[in-house]
């Protein structure tokens, strides 16, 4: 049952979180998750949260994923990011033909799927399939993946199109290319394909994925436009990381909050630290409400074009507000908060890096929403 699975995923996330915290520094240094953390994420159920056609279980919900990923993000945003994006990539496999889905999930719930959906390669028609070549950067979690979904440009029916193709780990190389200031532990390296033939049953037009078209009888989560749910999977780790930053800020500034003029005294002249605390908690509550509504919309199904655009708008707005929150926390934490080994500055780097993702940019999301609601008859 979805609700039982939703609850169990959050519970499993609470069990994994201390392990992710213990290995967060190692993940940063090695620029990939510790194998024990990756195995724990798989055992918890993140990569197959939305998986189609797994015997004995129903796909989970976006609401359940949001809660569980945020729990992880409080301790390690990189682990939360990999957990979230592998769940998202697993959901996209529902759009493959039945034979392709069966091939991807042949080994069952232990399968890990990752994705590089920028059309950075080309696919040429050959008998029975597609000959694919190209390089796809920023494929998070690829070190632990069994399959990678890549998007490639094709020529079909006299026009340029894009297809999504499922490629097993044995068929592609991974180039160590992830050198960034935040989300260091996500291992978002580059996937390289050189003349790999992918059969038709393991490919689908990108527009099918974007529209959320799945086979009849599929779960509601498989019939969701990509832009209605994709921002949730990107913003959820940032919500957790911002919560972790606030918790650590309180630990660092506890003495200042308790001092005269800084404590939560209820007096006529509230101190600066209690103002920072109140504003940060209020902003995080507001973001949680925004993301919670977006999750409920996609879980309900039947998502409209306006709801899709609103979800994308809300997720971009959430990322913007979360970055502002951690900026304020770092500025007011004192020099201790900026120490290299300090969790607060790691959370700050992770949130700002994640908020820079192309799927969380405010300008295009705002424009797309405004064009819809501003149109005549809306």
UniProtKB/TrEMBL annotation:
<dbReference type="InterPro" id="IPR050741">
    <property type="entry name" value="Acyl-CoA_dehydrogenase"/>
</dbReference>
<dbReference type="Pfam" id="PF08028">
    <property type="entry name" value="Acyl-CoA_dh_2"/>
</dbReference>
<dbReference type="InterPro" id="IPR009100">
    <property type="entry name" value="AcylCoA_DH/oxidase_NM_dom_sf"/>
</dbReference>
<protein>
    <submittedName>
        <fullName>Hydrolase</fullName>
    </submittedName>
</protein>
<dbReference type="InterPro" id="IPR037069">
    <property type="entry name" value="AcylCoA_DH/ox_N_sf"/>
</dbReference>
<feature type="domain" description="Acyl-CoA dehydrogenase C-terminal">
    <location>
        <begin position="232"/>
        <end position="361"/>
    </location>
</feature>
<keyword id="KW-0378">Hydrolase</keyword>
<dbReference type="InterPro" id="IPR013107">
    <property type="entry name" value="Acyl-CoA_DH_C"/>
</dbReference>
<keyword id="KW-0560">Oxidoreductase</keyword>
<dbReference type="GO" id="GO:0016787">
    <property type="term" value="F:hydrolase activity"/>
</dbReference>
<dbReference type="InterPro" id="IPR036250">
    <property type="entry name" value="AcylCo_DH-like_C"/>
</dbReference>
<dbReference type="InterPro" id="IPR046373">
    <property type="entry name" value="Acyl-CoA_Oxase/DH_mid-dom_sf"/>
</dbReference>
């Amino acid at each position: 049952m979805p609700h039982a699975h939703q609850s169990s995923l959050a519970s499993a996330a609470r069990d994994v979180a201390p392990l992710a915290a213990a290995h967060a520094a190692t993940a940063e240094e090695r620029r990939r998750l510790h194998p024990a953390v990756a195995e724990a994420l798989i055992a918890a159920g993140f990569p197959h949260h939305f998986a189609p056609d797994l015997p004995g279980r129903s796909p989970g919900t976006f609401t359940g994923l949001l809660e569980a990923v945020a729990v992880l993000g409080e301790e390690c945003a990189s682990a939360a990011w990999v957990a979230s994006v592998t769940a998202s990539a697993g959901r996209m496999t529902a759009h493959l033909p039945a034979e392709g889905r069966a091939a991807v999930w042949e080994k069952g719930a232990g399968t890990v799927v990752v994705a590089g959906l920028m059309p950075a390669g080309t696919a040429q028609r050959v008998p029975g399939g597609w000959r694919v070549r190209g390089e796809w950067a920023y494929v998070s979690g690829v070190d632990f993946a069994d399959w990678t979904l890549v998007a490639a440009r094709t020529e079909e029916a006299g026009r340029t199109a894009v297809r999504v193709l499922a490629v097993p780990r044995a068929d592609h190389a991974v180039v160590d290319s992830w050198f960034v200031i935040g989300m260091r532990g996500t291992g978002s390296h580059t996937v390289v394909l050189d003349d790999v033939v992918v059969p038709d049953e393991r490919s689908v037009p990108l527009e099918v994925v974007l529209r959320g078209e799945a086979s009849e009888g599929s779960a509601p989560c498989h019939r969701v436009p990509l832009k209605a749910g994709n921002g949730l999977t990107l913003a959820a780790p940032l919500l957790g990381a911002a919560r972790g930053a606030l918790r650590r800020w309180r630990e660092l500034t506890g003495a200042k909050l308790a001092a005269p003029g800084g404590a939560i005294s209820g007096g006529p002249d509230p101190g600066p630290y209690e103002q920072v605390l109140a504003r940060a908690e209020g902003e995080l509550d507001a973001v949680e409400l925004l993301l919670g509504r977006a999750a409920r919309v996609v879980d309900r199904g039947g998502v409209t074009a306006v709801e899709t655009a609103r979800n994308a708008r809300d997720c971009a707005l959430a990322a913007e507000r979360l970055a502002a929150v951690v900026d304020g926390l770092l500025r007011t934490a004192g020099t201790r908060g900026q120490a290299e080994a300090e969790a607060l500055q790691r959370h700050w780097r992770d949130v700002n890096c994640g908020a820079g993702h192309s799927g969380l940019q405010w300008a295009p999301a705002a424009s797309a929403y405004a064009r819809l609601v501003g149109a005549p008859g809306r």
